[in-house]
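Consider the tokenized backbone below.
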């Protein structure tokens, strides 16, 4: 069960990597990002999304999150 959650997190990280592989400028004009922003505004009423903050999280925090989740999985499978 715990491994399923960690696996899901890693799957999401993989999607983030795919969607940001082209770098910041490509990310900021991507249809994937535009679709996500529109969906979030419509479904969740998020009007204050700061794209620069999103990019900074992707750049700075996601790689460390991936490392941490891999360590968690290693501990769960011992």
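A designed sequence for it:
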């Amino acid at each position: 069960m715990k491994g399923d959650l960690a696996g899901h997190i890693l799957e999401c990280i993989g999607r983030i990597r795919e969607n940001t592989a082209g770098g910041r400028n490509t990310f900021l004009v991507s249809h994937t990002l535009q679709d996500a922003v529109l969906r979030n505004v419509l479904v969740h009423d998020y009007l204050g999304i700061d794209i620069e903050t999103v990019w900074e999280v992707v750049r700075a925090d996601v790689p460390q999150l991936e490392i941490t989740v891999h360590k968690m999985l290693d501990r769960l499978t011992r």
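The CA atoms of residues 9 and 69 lie 8 Å apart.
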